[in-house]
Design a protein that fits this description.
heterodimer; A: 95 residues; alpha+beta; 8% strand; flat; B: 475 residues; 3-stranded antiparallel sheet; 18 strands; elongated
């Protein structure tokens, strides 16, 4: 069972604000999803290796060759705020 | 009660690849902000990162040099957190199955070698750079995606000095390998430290703090010194060390807890589905092994053995690969490698330091140092004149033979000529002769000086001395 505190924690990590009245709804939905996933545990998977990728690909590389970068104006176009070629964001303190 | 410090270091090195780790953007330092960026390193939806092969090669190189276990199978993971310098909201790193595990960095301390064991080394991408201004934080993503290796030591160091030596040794090795320029001031080599103290003899580790913001070797040592003392004081007063991240403030010389609110980071690592597994076979490792240069310690031992130079001199010479190679080329020109070492270490490095230059900047070719030493050894010029010649070589890059010839600096070794000079000097200084006769033997220095003045320093000092003593005793 996912408790409300856990929903709150997940929301915090994702930088989302959840209104108090939404809490019940979210914890119910979380639990529905987890219960559905629980069905997998009914299968015997002891002989299966965990699949991290759906393809069998391995060792895909690039050579160390410089390709042209993007035009800065295009890169900055979607930014809500920019100045002197830099993205400007609300002041953050040192991590 | 005696306390003991326990230190572990996390070092990030920026790799000297031409392009970023997952896209073809240039890694050149100092470009205008956000001119080396593309949809991949900006984390736009729908893009696919592709691993730079050179990064793997460099990691294998370091693994071989530090005797790490090279994992045949390794994987990339996403480290999730929010910060404006991280465009995707996660950093591509490695978590389980890093490329390298184990190994050690050997340091030279208190006259002996000591191995500092490593936990792991993994590949990851660098974040962007943030400049804080009054009207906001300015973010430049040119650095986002630049390849890094994070080298994590085990908590096995016990003094700031050990930590300093570890860093210097590691820096020397990555520079020899040519995988990182090791510039701490510019941030291409960065160091965080985990430090705790405990009562000596105890096995259990004390509560640690993490130190950040130390951008030179000196500051790493100073920050550790301060922090160790601070923790011991806390314990002595019956308090408890709080686990926290502290920033070194170089102006006040103390560490301060970070102001950010205390949130326990939870990175929710998971395998990056965009990047396929990395398989390293023996052939690849062998191919890289063939490209390994001679490493500092091997070079040091060989210099002592092959050239018979003083260990303390050899140690300075191998500090930089360029300097070591310079010495070796010079030494091959001469039969006196120790003299060659002396000229390089005292004169050449002296001049270069004075001018704020490096060995690669000097006009003097290494072979010319060897030739200069030979001129002195063969008695063609005196050691004193050699210094004048050296200065000229430093300024012009000319051959020592040419300078000696053009300036008429060849040593006077003709005994008859020197004998005449000795007689002249003795005759014109009867008082000094009397003093000598009366037992003031150090008057001889005065006579030598007079003769050198007459010959502009060109007279062979050995012959001058010999003849002076002879003539004075005859009087």
């Amino acid at each position: 069972m996912v408790e409300k505190e856990e929903v709150q924690r997940v929301a915090q990590l994702a930088l989302l604000e959840i209104e108090p009245e939404q809490m019940d709804k979210f914890s119910r939905q979380f639990n529905e999803i987890l219960e559905y996933m629980e069905e997998i545990n009914e299968l015997d998977l002891s002989q299966c290796e965990a699949a991290f990728h759906i393809t069998e690909l391995k060792n895909v590389f690039r050579e160390d060759k410089v390709e042209p970068s993007y035009n800065r104006d295009v890169i900055l176009k979607n930014a809500p705020d920019s100045e002197d070629g830099a993205f400007r964001v609300p002041k953050v303190i040192e991590r | 009660m005696e306390y003991e410090a326990v230190i572990g270091l996390e070092v990030h090195i920026q790799l000297l690849t031409k392009t970023k780790i997952f896209c073809g953007c240039s890694t050149d330092f100092g470009a205008p902000p956000n001119t080396h960026v593309c949809p991949v390193c900006m984390g736009m939806p729908g893009v696919l990162p592709v691993l730079n092969k050179k990064v793997v090669e460099y990691a294998i190189k370091l693994g071989l040099a530090l005797n790490c276990r090279i994992n045949k199978f390794s994987r990339f993971a996403r480290k999730n957190y929010f910060y404006p310098d991280l465009p995707k909201g996660y950093q591509i790193s490695q978590y389980e199955l890093p490329i390298l595990e184990g190994g050690a960095v050997e340091i030279f301390i208190n006259g002996g070698y000591k191995k500092i064991a490593l936990e792991r080394i993994h590949m990851e991408e660098d974040a962007g750079k943030t400049v804080h201004k009054p009207d906001g934080s300015y973010v430049d993503f040119n650095r986002a995606g630049v390849p890094l290796l994070e080298i994590v030591s085990k908590p096995v160091m016990h003094s700031p000095e050990e930590a300093g030596e570890y860093l210097k040794s590691l820096r020397r090795i990555v520079r020899y390998l040519g995988i990182c320029d090791g510039n701490m001031e510019e941030g291409s080599l960065r160091c965080d430290a985990n430090v705790s103290v405990r009562i000596k003899g105890e096995d259990k580790l004390g509560t640690k703090t993490e130190l950040k913001n130390m951008n030179s070797f000196k500051h790493v040592e100073k920050a550790l010194e301060y922090e160790i003392e601070r923790q011991i004081d806390v314990l002595k007063e019956g308090g408890k060390v709080i686990q926290q991240t502290r920033l070194w403030d170089e102006k006040s010389g103390i560490t301060k807890p970070m102001r950010s609110k205390e949130e326990s980071f939870e990175y929710r690592y998971f395998p990056d589905p965009d990047l396929v597994p990395l398989i390293i076979d023996d052939k690849w490792i062998d191919d890289v092994r063939k490209t390994l240069p001679e490493l500092p310690k091997e070079k040091l031992e060989r210099f002592i053995e092959e050239y018979g130079i003083k260990p303390e001199d050899a140690r300075v010479l191998v500090e930089e690969r360029e300097l070591a190679e310079y010495f070796e080329r010079a030494a091959k020109e001469s039969k006196e490698p120790q003299s060659v070492a002396n000229w390089i270490l005292s004169e050449l490095l002296g001049y270069l330091n004075r001018d704020g230059k490096e060995i690669k900047d000097t006009l003097i070719k290494p072979e010319q140092i060897g030739k200069l030493v030979e001129l002195v050894e063969k008695g063609i010029i005196s050691g004193k004149i050699a210094k004048t010649v050296f200065k000229e070589m430093y300024n012009s890059g000319d051959d020592p033979e040419k300078i000696v010839k053009e300036k008429g600096l060849i040593q006077i070794t003709d005994r008859g000529e020197i004998e005449k000079l000795v007689e002249e000097v003795l005759e014109s200084n009867p008082k000094a002769v009397e003093q000598y006769k009366a037992g003031k033997k150090n008057t001889i220095g005065f006579f030598v000086g007079q003769i050198m003045k007459k010959t502009k320093g060109k007279a062979n000092p050995k012959i001058v001395n010999e003849l002076l003593v002879k003539k004075l005793e005859e009087k």
